[in-house]
Amino acid sequence: MHVFSEGFIKNSTLYSQDFISQFHQMNAYRNLFNALDVQGQLTNRDPVNQSLYLWSKTILPNYLLRMLGDGVEMAHSIEGRLPFLDHKVVELVVSMPVSLKIRGVTEKYVLKEAAKPFITESMYQRQKHPFLAPPSMFKPNEPFQQLIQDTLRSSNMSKIPFYNQVAVIELLDYLPKMDKKGLSTVDIALMKMLSTYFLQERFGM
What we know:
Blueprint: E1 4-5, E2 8-9, H1 17-23, H2 28-34, H3 38-42, H4 47-57, H5 59-67, H6 70-75, H7 87-95, H8 98-101, E3 102-103, E4 106-107, H9 109-115, H10 121-125, H11 143-153, H12 165-174, H13 180-203
Antiparallel strand pairs: 1-2, 3-4
């Protein structure tokens, strides 16, 4: 029985048994730490700086720059500029005390203070938050929702070895019963599957 309750989805139920069997013994966290200079860069450092080091070695190059920045730009022959990654800026920030990087719940404190004379009070007071696309939610008559339904139920989706299409269809059938919180939770899983499908169609993974 697959779990789609209380606005929570166990993503593992959506993967094929072969895929799970192949990777279930892999310790992803150990593999990550084995690739990092834990002793030299993390030991005895402030938790904020530990977090920044981990972020710079994982999310920054593998997600923010690859999927949201330079990788996507170069794929479309666009040369972007990332001024905050200028090595002089990075070296300056590295040398700063933690109290200038984060203060209370205010992240990027020194940047916010530097920008204060040039922004409105509401912008200055607003908490930092990521830029995210709004959840697609479940709106059966909208083209995007129909695209999700048609794509993930298709015979071509069954050819992708990562997913258990029976479980995927069970999730699609369950969407009308979910509340707003539940739909928001499964939105990421749906977008991952949709992206995988189009990557397979385009590049034949």
